[in-house]
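Researcher: Structure prediction, please.
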Amino acid sequence: MGKGGVGKTTVSVLLGMEASRRKKKTLLVELGDSDAIGKIFASGSLPEEPSLLSECLWGARINPKAELEAYTRAHINSNLVANRIIESRLFDYLFAATPGLKEVMSLGRIWRWEQAVDKASLPLFDLIIVDSPATGHGLSLLRLPGHLVQMIRVGPLVSQINELQNLLQNPQKTSLALVTLPQELPVNETIELYDTAESLLKISVRIVFINQVWPALYTSDDIKSVNHLSDSLRSDSSNPSWTALLDAARRHIDKRAHQDKYIAQIASAIPSKIVGVPFSFTNDLILDDINRMTFEVIPSSSSP
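Model: Predicted structure follows.
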């Protein structure tokens, strides 16, 4: 989860590829209207049923309306009646206008995948990675089970929702991976999201990914040397090449120093594991770029 545009899809694919390398049967789930995961794997839109993307890695995209249609058919004995309901204008209107309906259908689909077993009664997937919508929509998704229990209170549906809520709040089963950028607004939103998840939603935040971290190419001694040489050559116009090189180095150092301020803010506010994802120097990120990425573990100043 995280603010829109921080790289949740990139991190989801990165985690999925790492899990598959460890031979874990992993399902990548895409929510919302984006086709980003399918495009990364050059397969267009992901199908609604899990499809093999690479060894030990499957992908699927949830279509909430298709889930509602399947739910309607499953709970109405007559196919004729079920089809009449699904094909009616009222069905389309209810789907579009009912608050929380898309979210509950999406959560129900993920829940069923989590419970699915193979012919040997083993879990169909070892790990399910959900590429969540942006923070606001994502929080609505996670708050929904609690709201529904308060609204409905009794009946068989409540027991199912309670099972789903227990799954989300079980730290052995479910955890949040927050994704942010080393910038002011995403960092502030991530800290607020961490507090909301831990205190209100009771969902464990295991890790925070800081995406697009500028490489730290210079040691503290290098930085002192660059500063000294810059000061020495500032008034010397006879060395334009050196001046250009030092200006480039200075801009690089300043860029990382600016990011370090926000990285430190995250590390001081969130006790979870914090990992930097390197900046990728491309406008068109492909699977090979993601496979080459390495993590930078960042110490958390509030860790025990």
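Model: The chain has twelve helices and eight strands.
Researcher: Thanks, that helps.
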